[in-house]
Amino acid sequence: MLTFYHLPLSINSRRVWVALLEKNLSFKAQVMTLSGDQFAPEFMALNPFHHIPVLVDDGLAVIESFAILDYLEAKHPTPSLLATTPAGIATMRMVQMVTVNELVPAINPLFKKMMGFGNDPDDALEQAQQKAEVVLRFYADQLGDGPFFGGEQITLADVVAGTYAPWFEGLGLPMAHYPTLQAWAARLMARPAWQTTQPTEADLAAFRDRMQQRMATQGQ
Ligand SMILES: N[C@@H](CCC(=O)N[C@@H](CS)C(=O)NCC(=O)O)C(=O)O
Question: Are residues 98 and 185 in the same domain?
Answer without folding.
Answer: yes
